[in-house]
Design goal:
OB fold (Dihydrolipoamide Acetyltransferase, E2P), globular, 124 residues, single chain
Length: 124
């Protein structure tokens, strides 16, 4: 049920993306990749081999991945700027690593979407 609700929320969010106001310019976010459902429901992060395996399975099953920002603890829903590129396929190789992503942030209410232009290994 939670997964369906999250998927519905994401569909509504992406449908209204055009009406959101972007922050000025490109931003840089450093943090870690998390499974949005597992993190929000249980606080699961890729901090152990068992949790990493859970997150990989969830992502391959279709649960969306996001970025948990260092310091602020802000959670970003991720989409890719490049057309026909899924965010999960881009983020999966970075699971368990600190990453730095660049792109534009769109916010509405308490939800933030990061439209990623580049991603790479971040500072520890």
């Amino acid at each position: 049920m939670e997964k369906r609700l999250l998927v519905l929320l994401l569909i509504i969010l992406f449908a209204s993306l055009n009406s959101m106001v972007a922050q000025t310019g490109e931003v840089t976010i450093t943090g870690e990749i998390v499974d949005l459902v597992s993190y929000m429901a249980s606080g699961v992060k890729p901090d152990s081999p068992q949790n990493l395996e859970i997150i990989q399975g969830s992502a391959r099953g279709g649960n969306p991945l996001g970025i948990l920002e260092d310091g602020s603890g802000r959670l970003y829903v991720v989409t890719m700027k490049q057309a026909n590129t899924g965010s999960n396929q881009t983020l999966l190789p970075w699971l368990g690593s600190r990453i730095t992503a660049k792109g534009k942030v769109y916010s509405k209410g308490s939800t933030s979407v990061l439209v990623v232009t580049t991603i790479g290994k971040g500072a520890k």
